[in-house]
Amino acid sequence: xxxxxxxxxxxxxxxxxxxxxxxxxxxxxxxxxxxxxxxxxxxxxxxxxxxxxxxxxxxxxxxxxxxxxxxxxxxxxxxxxxxxxxxxxxxxxxxxxxxxxxxxxxx
Length: 107
What we know:
The chain is mainly α. The chain has one domain. It is built from six helices and no strands. The model has no long low-confidence stretch (mean pLDDT 84). This is Olfactory receptor 4C15. It holds the Pfam family 7tm_1.
């Protein structure tokens, strides 16, 4: 969450698509950690380590959904770097804010 706050507080970093993708990736990682960690902490403290089927399915869905979204954001970041390296003169016209918004929305 520190990465998200520092990018939003710095106006120079906010204008780059790469930092937008980095913010989304950091936010997804924070959500991923908060979906898995609480049950692990409770299980390490308590003697009885059970989970209901509904709770298990919710935790599994959250884990798979957020991990898939992270992979898509990493793929988008790789595409952004590909365009920046291979087509540097057309980078700003290819990676406009509309396309960045669509790519983040897909993830």
